[in-house]
Amino acid sequence: MRGKLDFAILALFLLGFADARFVVEKNSLKVTSPDSLKDVFECAIGNFGVPQYGGTMVGVVLYPKSNRKACKDFEEFDISFKAKPGGFPTFLLVDRGDCYFTAKAWNAQKAGAAAILVADDRIEPLIT
């Protein structure tokens, strides 16, 4: 019994030295075409797996006609985003809401998208 009490006191003591912070990783998204949308947009990053810092990606952005929030499996809509051999990878643009970001990313990945861009419907500080 004494050992458990000593451990609890030690744990509480060490907890007093713990420090944590939440950092929003920001980046930019450069749109090069069409001319009406050319600009650089501030965005937040959601990393899955090992982060790939310092690189760039080039691809084609597609906004689906169905399942625009990517909350369902794209197989239900007979949609695939797999790039053709020698073609640019597909970046899927979806709307925010109705399900977790991880579900959106999972459904996009299963459908062959190389990346997912989740568009917010309001102007607010970036969070991840």
UniProtKB/TrEMBL annotation:
Keyword vocabulary terms for this entry: Glycoprotein, Receptor, Signal
Stretch forming the signal peptide: 1-20
InterPro entries registered for this protein in UniProt: PA_dom_sf (IPR046450), PA_domain (IPR003137)
Gene: VSR2_1
Coiled-coil ranges per UniProt: none
Domain (PA): residue spans on this chain: 62-122
Protein known as: Vacuolar-sorting receptor 2
